Amino acid sequence: MKRTLMLVLVLALALGFVSAVCAADKRVTLKFSNVSSVSTKEAGALFKQILEKESQGSIIVRLFPDNVLGDDRMVIESTIFGDIDIGASATSPLAKLIPDFYLFDCPFVFLSVEDAYAAMDGPGESMLKVMENKGLKGIGFWENGFRNLTNNEVAARVPGDVKNMKIRTMENDVHLAAWRAFGAKPIPMAYTELFTALQKGAVDGQENPLGLIASSKLYEVQKYVSLTQHVYTPYVVCMNLNKYNSMSDAQRAALKKAFKEATAFQRKRSQELEKEILIDLEKYGTVVTRLTPAEKAAWQKVMSEAKIFDLVKRKMDNPKYLDEMRSK
Q1: What is the pTM of this model?
Q2: Domains of the chain and any CATH numbers
Q3: Below-50 pLDDT ranges, the chain
């Protein structure tokens, strides 16, 4: 009888342990809405591979690249509601919901890509934490890239080179104020109208990331590309907070590891692609101008003197983040 009771007790404890393990490692499916850049799509595939392996198959990732589930605004909203589990978005749509992300509209916060990475991986962690107030778990930052200036007038190096230059910009009050401070004449215009406007001389130049400059063949109507790197725009990858909290500690650790490795890959791949684009642009006859750190600092000084940093801080809930991230 004692042996029977002991056996029953051992079985009960074993079943309880198995049940606890099964509950902790309950299978989770994550719907991941990704953007359309090459480096982010490749990083998304790597993230899926690593996470499924590290979680020992308890997490399955379903990839939806190229914004097939909606534009950035829709993806953020759907992630909050839980219709999407993980979403990647540019910062501009996110700033309307979480004003601290207006920081990434500000020109010359960062003077190099290394500055941007150090800021996002340091003070940026506090910004991601703020997202929890909206039902989102900020996972991290992927690279969208620096915006650069193109024009048909001059190989621009210093702010004085763009004086009276008609430059197409987005309808963004920070960008408009910044280009006016540089002495240019910013003209808000839909991107779909830009190529024709450059072709006809309605505007002298424009500013965008290198990937967009190349894919839209702006080199056909622009002679000069200056690597001003004036605005750095990352993608923010976030997760539905309730879904994140429902996972086990082991699953969350696997997600953290997978995202860290995918981020390192994505940033490296993004830089490789930019180098390839620059080689292609020069083959097309474009004059590429690389600014020195001192030349970039001259542009940053104009932003400080024109109180553009203060303008952005007034939009933010936690203006200290701009001071913490800003390159000195």
Answers
A1: 0.88
A2: 26-319 (3.40.190.170)
A3: 1, 7-23
